[in-house]
Amino acid sequence: xxxxxxxxxxxxxxxxxxxxxxxxxxxxxxxxxxxxxxxxxxxxxxxxxxxxxxxxxxxxxxxxxxxxxxxxxxxxxxxxxxxxxxxxxxxxxxxxxxxxxxxxxxxxxxxxxxxxxxxxxxxxxxxxxxxxxxxxxxxxxxxxxxxxxxxxxxxxxxxxxxxxxxxxxxxxxxxxxxxxxxxxxxxxxxxxxxxxxxxxxxxxxxxxxxxxxxxxxxxxxxxxxxxxxxxxxxxxxxxxxxxxxxxxxxxxxxxxxxxxxxxxxxxxxxxxxxxxxxxxxxxxxxxxxxxxxxxxxxxxxxxxxxxxx
Amino acid sequence: xxxxxxxxxxxxxxxxxxxxxxxxxxxxxxxxxxxxxxxxxxxxxxxxxxxxxxxxxxxxxxxxxxxxxxxxxxxxxxxxxxxxxxxxxxxxxxxxxxxxxxxxxxxxxxxxxxxxxxxxxxxxxxxxxxxxxxxxxxxxxxxxxxxxxxxxxxxxxxxxxxxxxxxxxxxxxxxxxxxxxxxxxxxxxxxxxxxxxxxxxxxxxxxxxxxxxxxxxxxxxxxxxxxxxxxxxxxxxxxxxxxxxxxxxxxxxxxxxxxxxxxxxxxxxxxxxxxxxxxxxxxxxxxxxxxxxxxxxxxxxxxxxxxxxxxxxxxxxxxxxxxxxxxxxxxxxxxxxxxxxxxxxxxxxxxxxxxxxxxxxxxxxxxxxxxxxxxxxxxxxxxxxxxxxxxxxxxxxxxxxxxxxxxxxxx
Lengths: 309, 411
Description:
The complex is a heterodimer of chains A (309) and B (411). By secondary structure, chain A is of the alpha/beta class. Chain A contains eleven helices and 14 strands. Chain B is mainly alpha-helical and 411 residues long. In chain B, 66% of the residues lie in helices and 5% in strands.
């Protein structure tokens, strides 16, 4: 349904997207996960036709986004990160305007506007100016404007940024409903929990490249069910590495003067051995956190950095 | 076409939701125009030139001059003063001009001897002194011809009875009257009606017509000042669309940026039409506006409004940020208004400034509207003005679309 082939986007010497490739199918929620600056929004920009790729192709149901832009864009729906709404207009007027932009007219447009207003729960306040809405209501309307024309592929660029928990749950339900109706959903986020809960498949991006791709189970498999131990304190990197080499299956992911990250299976039972080794290396441990396998631990394992850094 | 119209409608709705901005676009020019009219001595009615007359001749005929402005009494008010008072008052700016009729002036005129009138004008006023000067020149010309026609009779009247009596006898008065009557009769066939019929054919209508109503002089400029404010305000909307994210959303739809921008220009044009209609409505209360030309006036003003929206939008999208865009448009807006006949009518400007200002887009627009308000319609003049403004506007539109589609939206 949507296919990216060797997508590359350069800004002068900066390579924002470097050889990104993936395909997503109808009814699938495909997550694009990565820290800020990983290249997610640039990828979305290329898919939506906002940016011209330097190389590679984006095809929506076979229509190239550059060579056959009108046909490709007709099949796409966008829910941008910012609230792309006219605040002086009502929800109904906003939906009618964006529906018109996708060629809906007359009774068909009116019917779709009513349906979407009901879906996003704004039917009773449809005539009020958007500026009077709460943040959550605006988010829902922003979503509604992206699906007014029943797109085959829906792009959501971090749609839950700054949204309260209740509105987030409602928004994620709307996304799931779209996928259930057969829409291919491409969802970018840097919230790992959201990606884990929502997405059928995931691509993890960093520095413009996809560093991992698969279902949640496949990605967890890459971690070998290893836990992540985070320790803060005072460490001598060389002596710490040497000391931990003697602890069974311990892998030092990162160590510097004040922090240490260790990946290991069943970390809880091996804590005494870890502390013993660190004591032998004259490390002063002040705090310890253990994280069970997750997308976050996978990201740290792959990049040596926190996802939110 | 559908998206173009829905964009125009959407923008009009947004504008109507912000009536304060609309009021400011109209109110600021109206306020400036009103203040300018007051400062120039007009209260919206006809301003009068006050001539301070020093009558050193003190004759019957000079007294006639002192009694008023004759056929131009509507525009000229004459006040007889002493020489010292006259000089002091004109130095203080109290009066349009000081006219000194020297002793023996009327006698010298009647005897065809050299005579000098001294006129001191108030340099702080620009239009009214010109009116006085023109009136005086016309008076001198008239006196010359009167002297040619009835010089002999007038000299006799001026010299008085030869027998030293205070009054002419009945017989002498009858003789003089007969003589004047015969001279007029001899000229009757020439004067009433004139044997020479003057047919005025204007190849190129004059660029301007002097109007003595200052508020009416200001009005076309005020209309275009409003239209420039509207255009500048509407042009800022590209930054709002960018900041809101609606521009990016629009570009991801199958619609063209050209249709989107054209819709925005159309919305600006509709506001321009409403503003122009108000302005022309005001003109109709002040002046006999040719009814048949009103649609042409409205079209002309709306066309200018659309072109101005395009020019300012191009400036906005060329700027690197919103603040820069607004500063740049203001830097263009105010000099254009000042030199292009919006702040001051061309008639009140120094000649060099007026001749430059008449070639600015708004200067050109003001001149054509003045022509139309004065009932002069020249398809050639209007057509060339349409081309002069329309072609650069079309080019600016294409450049703005290119920029909107490109680096503006992602920068």
